[in-house]
Amino acid sequence: MERTERIYMDHAATTPVSEKALAAMLPWFREEFGNPSAIYDYGQTSKNILESCRKRFARCIGALSSEIFFTSGGTESDNWVIRSTLKLKGAKGQHIITTAIEHNAVLRTLSQMEEEGFEVTCLTPDAQGHITPDQLENVIRPDTILITIMLANNVVGTVLDIPALARVAARHHIWFHTDAVQAVGHIPIKVHQLGVDFLSVSAHKFGGPKGTGALYCRLPNHLPALLTGGGQEKEQRSGTENIPGIVGMTAALEEAVEDMPQETGRLIAMRNRIIESLCSIPGVKLTGDPENRLPGFASFMVEGIGHSVYIVNALNEKGICVSSGSACSASSREASHVLLAMGYDAKQAAGALRITLGRDNTKEQVDHLLSVLPDVILRQREAQLHAK
Prior knowledge:
Shape: globular
Number of domains: 2
Helix content: 40-55%
């Protein structure tokens, strides 16, 4: 008999809203629904919680409250930094540096900027997904105005050495942005230790609600507004603030940071067990850095299966949710641009499998995954042989 309980192991794509975050949000939908721009009590109550959340959120990442701007998510935050920096700094130069493994929120935005006359240098990572300070140093030019490199990769889980890269940028007085969407809430982050000027956050990656995020903007590097209108967020980001979402995101991040010491060890133990078990299967190889990776992140290349979507579908029939790659390309059979950049060919990249754990996963669930996945891989390999 097939197992009917759903086991969710795709937390890099999104996470369930935590119970604490949900409870914190509920009163702000109906009981305290005021517009924070209004001067009467309903409005001022919302304004007060907004600023309280800003302080609490800032504390979680080692920032000042005046350096935090609330947005609709990581994509908006990435776009705000890129588009506004180029608008502000375009007179100095039109050269931007990034990497070939960035999220499409960065890469597609930069592609549009190229159409407008900006020049983009895209650094190629090593086989584990790393960029070295020397690589960065070698492509900096007098007209370089922005460097944008992610903190943790969403396909293989590698955590990049952002402090070392940011130091290179600082020596040249170039603004440095990091997309930290996969990292915030999962590894300790203090922005001033990272040395970055800008950092993007998305709430739904760490137990907060979808459609809510933040941008850290190091003083005095305030950007021109991306959205204009009523002048919210200190005239920097117009639009009535999503108070329930901001409350939920703040509660979720506080919970994630508080639980991180014990949760990290638990996730690493389960992750390592998955890696050890699957890599004992011939033709299954780990992708990304084996050590410097996100705690709950296990990613593999599985040979001989045609495409990992078959594995994902077979596991889904058994009530287990995993991913064939990044969430943004899960519906496509195109090879991941991240894996291609890391040196895998299209056939190898087609076998990419990503298993990402969260606070709701248990040892028993990992046991069940490992009891069924080897047979699923074997059956798919046999199916591929018969199809030839």
